[in-house]
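Z., the sequence and structure:
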Amino acid sequence: STEGNFPPLQPLPRHPSLGQLSATPQGDGEGLSSSMSQQETHLIVDRLREYKFEEDLTLVTFDDKTPQELLILFNNVLKDLSIDHDVDVRDEDPQDTAVRIMNFLPVLNYNPNVDFETFRDGLQAGDRSLIYPILVHVLSSLPSLRKRAYIGRFLTNVELPEEMFADPEIQAKHAEYTQLQQQFKETHKATDAMRGTKTQPTELKREVQQLEEERQQLKQKITKMEAKLRKLDNFDALYEVTSTLRKEQEREAVLRERMEEQEMMYKQAETRFYQVRKKLGEMEATAQDGTGEDFLQRLQEDVRSKTMICMEKLPDDINSKQQRLESVRKIIEQPAVNDYELHNMQQDMQQLSEEISNLQEQEQRAQNQGGDKLSMFRQQALIVSRKKQDQLERLQMKEEELRELEQELNEKREKSGHKGVKILKGAEFEKYANGLKLKAKQHKKLKGQLSSARAEKVILQRTEDILKTRHGDQTKFLEDLEKRKGVQGAAELQEKLETVSEQTSNVNKAKEMTLEEITKVVSKINDTIKEKKAKLAPLIKELRQVRADFAQLESEYNEKKAAYENTKVGLDADRDKLTMEVTAYMEECRREESRYHYLNAMIHSTNVMLERAVKEAAGRNKIGEMGQSYEELYKSRIQAEENQSKILRERQKQVKDDHDSNVEQARMFKSLHKLLACKIRTLQQDVANEGETMLGV
C-alpha cells in the first residue's frame, strides 16, 4: 500500500475508456482506430505539448514513432512524476524496466489488467494498446498524480512478518517509522494550507521591501529629529516626558480594550440578568396568582414545545448541515478537475438524469395501471408533514419574537424604574377598567376645552396683530406717558410682578400635588403591607413546620452521609489496591507474552536450521539434477573458484614475465610504423617531382 491512509491519496477517477483500451488486442498503428477514439489521441498529443514533453509533436509524428521512441516518451512522462524513472531505457534491461514501471502503476491508481510477462513483452514491443491507456490516465490528471507520487514515496508501508515484531529493536524502529510518517502528514497538510493562501510570494516580497523602505525613512527622520532636539537645553527632560506620554498612551489603549471587553461582558451579564429576572417575575406571578398545578402545567407545555422542536426540527437541520459540510469537504479533498473530466462528468450527469426521469415515468405508469390504493394516504401524510413543519417554523419564529419583545420590555422597565408588573384579575381588573373609562371621558372633556382655548388664542392673536398694524407699536407711547406722569418703568414692573405671581402659584400647586401624591403613596403602601401580611401568615406557619421537618431530615441525612463516607473510603482503598495488582499482573502478562513470541520465533528458526542440518547429515537434502547435497555443491563451487583463481594467477605471471619484451616489441612496431610512413611520404614526393619534370619537358 502506497497511500498510507493519507487524505490526499484518495483513489483517482479512472478514465471511462481505460477498461476498453486495456482489453483491446495487441497491434500496431493500423489497428489504433479500432481501439482508441480520435478524441483520446488528441488528448495525449495536446497534453504532451501542454506539459512541454514535446512541444512540436503532432498527430502524424506521434503515430509514426517507433516502439523504442514511444517507450522513451512514456518513460519521460513517468520521470516527471518520480526521479526513480530517471534512467535510459536503451541501456536498461527489459526485465528491470517492466518491474520498475509495473511497481509504480499502483501508486498512480492504475491496474493494467495483464500479467507480468504480457506487460514486459508489450513494453519492449511498444504495444500502443498497452501504453496509450496509461498515457491517457496519467496525462488527464498529471498535477494531482505528481502530488500522489510524491506522497507515495514517503507513505509506503513496509510489510514485515508478524514474527519479526517479537524483536524489541524492530518494534522501536517500526514505531519510529510510523511517527515519522505522521509527522510528514502534518507537515504536508500545513504546507498545502500555506500554498492555498491567496497571498503570493511576490506580493509578500514587495510588502517586505516597502516596509524596509519605510523603516529606513523612519530611521532617517528619527536621526534628524534627535540632531535637531539635542540642541535644546532641556532635551533630557523633554525626552523623559515624551517617553512617559507614549507609555501612558499604550496603557490607555490597553485599558480601552479592557473596557470594551468589560462592556461586552456587562451586556452579556445584563442579558442574562433580564432573562433570570423574567423567570423570577413569572415565578412570583405564579406563586401569587396561581397554584403549583398551574405552574407545573405551564412547565409541561414548555417542555412539550421544546421537545417537539428538538425531536423533529433540529435533527433535520443538523442532518442537512452535516450533509452540506460533508459534500463541501469531499469537494475540497478532490483533486483539480480538468476540462476533459468535467465534460465526461456532465455527460454522465445528463445520462443519469434521463434514467431517473424514465424510472419515474415507469413508476407513474405502474401506479396508474395497478391502482395504487396508498397514493392518497401518502399524499395526505406528505401534506400533514409539510403543515407540521411550517407550524414548527412559525412557532419557533413567534418564540424568538416573544423573547425579543420581553427583553425590550425588561430594558424599558429598567430604564423607567419599574421592577415588576402585577397581573390584575377579577374585581381589580374591573376597577382598573372603570378607572380607565373615567379617565378617557375626562381626557375627551379636557381635550375639547383645550381645542376651544386654542381657537380663542388664535382669534386673540389675530386681533392683536390687526391692532398693531393699525396703531403701531404702543411701547414708546407708554414710555412717554410714564415720563410725563413721573412713573417711569411701571409697565415693566407690572409685567415682572405678574410673572413672579404666576411662578409662585405654580410652585404652590406643585407642592399641593406633591403632598397629595405622597399621602396616596403612603396609604397605598400601608394597604399593600396589610395585604401581604394577611397572605403571608398561613405561609409562615407552613414554613415553620417545613423547617422542623427539614431539621429532622437533615440530621438523618448527615448520619447516613457519614456512614456512606466511611464505607466509600474502605471500598476505594480496596479498589486502588486491586487496580495496582491487576496492572502489575497485566504488565507481567505482556512481558511474558512478548517473551513467548520471541522464544517461539527463535525455536522455529532453530528447528528449521536443525532440520536442514539433519537432512544434510543424512544425505537426503539433494538439490539439482545431479542429486548433490549442499556440502557437495558448495565444495564443487569452491573447487571451481580455486581453479579459476589458479588460472588467473598463471596468466598474471605470464603477463608480468612478458611485459618488458612486449613493451619493447610495441616500441619497435611504433618505430617501424613511423619509418614506413616516412618512406611513403618520400615516395609520394618523388612521384610528384617526376610528374612536374615531365610536364615541364
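The mean pLDDT is 77. The CA atoms of residues 597 and 672 lie 80 Å apart.

Let me know what you think.
H.
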